[in-house]
User: What shape does this take?
Amino acid sequence: MTLHPAIIALLAGALAVNALVLYAAWHALAILRHWDPNSGSERQLQLERRTYLVSTLLGNAFLFEILSLALLVFVADRLHLQINGAMCAVGTFNANAWGYPALLLKVFNVLGAGLWLTLNFADSRAYDYPLVRVKNRLLLLLALPVSLETLALWYFFRNLKGDVITSCCGSLFSAGGNQVAADLAGLPPLPTALLFYLLLLLTIAFGVLFLRGHGKGQIFTIFATLTFSVGIAALISVFGPIFYELPHHHCPFCILQSEYLHVGYLLYTALFTGVLAGLGCGVLSPFRNRPSLHNFIPRLQRYLTIICLLSYALFALAVTLRFLISDFQLFS
Assistant: This one.
């Protein structure tokens, strides 16, 4: 199936991103060793020009990395029609041993890319590149998982066979199973939903306090991350069955299909936008007092906090409205 146009696009993009990250990581080593903003030497001038070039290339590469998560899920959902036993993207990812590692590495790298883009955006607004060492250290940490993701994607698509019988979402996300997916599906609906709404309210509360100057960005980030994690779990164990109107259907990918108006793309976009903005707000907090950034970072954190709160509010509004207008009763 590697000749499928969408697969070719994904693999070509992954190879390009990997090549740019490795190229940038090589230059990051030199920057970390020799960077001296107080020096006017020829080497420092070369490093500054190289930093600008690498940042521009990586900005485009990591933006594609974030967008390609949706493309990967979309491709997996469409390929299920060609795989025996698959009913959605779950069956595609489960068709060989590389599917879910590729997906999890993609998610991890998307979060890392979002953090790097946030740091780079703030760094580019200062005259003295105060975050250059921080963002290059993060880049070195991301080089290995990006390379592993590329390998996992290659082996996943290379070994994807249409004549292999795979498991459907009904068997994997079943409360009676013994895998992580089954554990998520088996979470008690009412306590899980209450925990999600409680964390959402706490995130909103700490976000408002932070916007008013009475809270810390790191605390807001912690609750934003917890809301994202519990939101994913609640989508599988609680909100998914409400959208499907089937009490034992806990698939996290069927909700992406046309039968449900592709609403899953809206829900996942809201969750990932929220967590990326929340993490970005927290990662900037240690640098609020840098002289060249003490005016810009608080303003950027305000924008990120508002984006996070609006994204989570959109997710909560969508699932709550579905619950209110549906005749299906999950909690009875």
